[in-house]
Design goal:
It is a single chain. Helix 9 links the parallel strand 10 and strand 11. It is built from twelve helices and 15 strands. The strands form three sheets. Strands 9-10-11-4-12-13-15-14 form an eight-stranded mixed β-sheet, sandwiched between helices. It has a five-stranded antiparallel β-sheet with strand order 1-8-5-2-3. The protein has a two-stranded antiparallel sheet with strand order 6-7. It has 439 residues and is of the alpha/beta class. It has a domain at 137-150 and 159-182. It has helices at residues 14-35, 97-105, 197-200, 215-218, 225-236, 242-255, 261-264, 274-286, 304-321, 332-338, 356-361, 366-373, and strands at residues 45-46, 53-66, 69-82, 86-90, 113-127, 149-151, 169-171, 185-191, 208-211, 292-296, 324-329, 341-346, 349-355, 424-425, 431-432.
């Protein structure tokens, strides 16, 4: 007698697949509509919880709506980036580090990828607007404090004359050392998670910039590196002349330690080595003198010697610009050498965070201990087998609300059952998410 064939629980039926697609489409439309919403700046203006921070990420959820279900790449993380500090975001591949950085930049691949919950508070600068919604220029002053006047020019650069044939005099707008026209600015905090895409263009690339992981795929192969730097100059300063933009490109190449910048500015990316291309990426990120620089594994594709040079360059740039840096890496050696604070991620969640000394001298979470133990040292014998954390990372689709490391944890006990552990504060700067440290 034939029996009904049992359904494989690991295979979706056509009906289930269509239901997932329908649900995902509705969710994606909702989030995409919010990005195009016409709102005033008051809608996404907020306040920092601590004025000493430049960035505060709170309860951030970034999901990918796939045909197999909802992938929770970032699943409720909270951390902050202090001013003039370097924060390392650490974890193995697939833990959500890069998705976190892309969420901050509003560069998550849409419509599948969406920030569905949480806030990203960023302290930035914005223009003061007059009653007609126009920027208020700052005018140059002479030694006596009086406004300087000059000839008014038309779009072709010719002097405009009045009806009597005399040059029309107008106030001269002040400019920065880089030749950028100055306007009245104000300090303001925006919630990037709420900002429409059009408004995000005001701060991305200027106050917050990113050094991408692989420069060969990030740089355009059909344009010279100088052209690509000049393009950013025009975005930040639309009034810049071609000569000013070219001189700025040469200056930025020199600033990041590239020899013969007057020659290299005319090179294409394929004519440069990996280290040189990474320096070009850093130069592009620095054009707008940003307040926050996100470096997404900037040394992954480089050899050890060049890695050290790039890391020292990032530290020097951070000190010169007085900027903050979020350094994303899986290399604990890079973290120990470069960072002030460390955030350890696993499976889309934070498991431990603290100062670099606290994380290395007193690691608390079993995962943090495991990734430190997995790194070879000078004491490791030639024939010794390197330690690896047993098991695999859990599937981010339909992930349960429990300790996600317990199946791989060597310190697991009966207390590990139940919901995901709450944050336990060990010191003012050191906290851990582990049931073991409950009081």
């Amino acid at each position: 007698m034939k029996t009904k064939k049992e359904k494989n629980p690991y295979i979706l039926s056509l009906k289930e697949s269509r239901a997932i697609q329908k649900s995902n489409l509705a969710e994606m439309k909702k989030f995409e509509k919010a990005k195009r919403k016409k709102v005033t700046p008051d809608y996404f203006t907020t306040q920092l919880k601590d004025e000493n921070n430049i960035l505060e990420v709170e309860n951030l959820h970034t999901y990918f709506f796939t045909d197999s279900g909802v992938s929770k790449a970032v699943n409720g993380i909270t951390f902050s980036v202090p001013k003039n500090a370097i924060v390392g975001l650490v974890g193995e591949s697939g833990c959500g580090k890069s998705v976190t950085s892309l969420s901050i930049m509003q560069l998550v691949q849409a419509p599948q990828g969406q920030v569905v919950e949480g806030s990203i508070r960023f302290a930035t600068r914005d223009f003061v607007l007059d009653g007609k919604n126009k920027r208020i220029p700052i005018y140059a002053k002479d030694e006596n404090g009086d406004t300087v006047y000059g000839n008014k020019l038309d779009k072709k650069g010719n002097v405009v004359l009045d009806k009597d044939g005399n040059p029309v005099q107008v106030p001269v707008q002040a400019r920065s050392e880089d030749g950028i026209p100055l306007y009245e600015m104000k300090e303001v905090t925006y919630d990037i998670a709420k900002m429409p895409t059009e408004d995000m263009h005001r701060i991305r690339g200027k106050d917050i910039s990113m050094i991408f992981q692989e420069p060969m795929t990030s740089l355009n192969p059909v344009f010279t590196v100088g052209y690509q730097i000049e393009e950013v100059v025009y975005l930040i300063n639309p009034t810049a002349t071609k000569k000013e933009a070219h001189e700025k490109a040469i200056e930025m190449l020199s600033r990041v330690g590239i020899p013969m910048p007057e020659t290299i500015v005319n090179y294409y990316p394929h004519q440069l080595s990996g280290g040189m291309r990474q320096r070009v990426m850093i130069a592009i990120a620095l054009v707008g003198n940003p307040r926050l620089i996100i470096a997404d594994e900037p040394t992954t594709a480089l050899d050890v010697t060049i890695q050290s040079q790039i890391l020292h360059l990032i530290k020097d740039v951070q000190k010169q610009c007085k900027a903050s840096v979020v350094l994303i890496t899986h290399d604990l050696g890079v973290v120990a050498e470069t960072c002030d604070y460390v955030v350890v991620m696993y499976a889309g969640k934070i498991v431990e965070k603290g100062t670099v000394f606290e994380i290395f001298d007193n690691p608390l979470h079993p995962y943090t201990k495991g990734i430190q133990k997995a790194k070879p040292t000078f004491d490791t014998g030639v024939d010794a087998e390197l330690y690896s954390i047993p098991g695999v990372v859990p599937n981010p689709i339909n992930i349960p609300n429990e300790c996600l490391f317990k199946d791989r944890c060597g310190e697991r006990c009966s207390c590990c059952e139940g919901e995901y552990p709450e944050e336990i504060q060990v010191s003012p700067t050191h906290s851990v998410f582990c049931h073991k440290y409950k009081k």
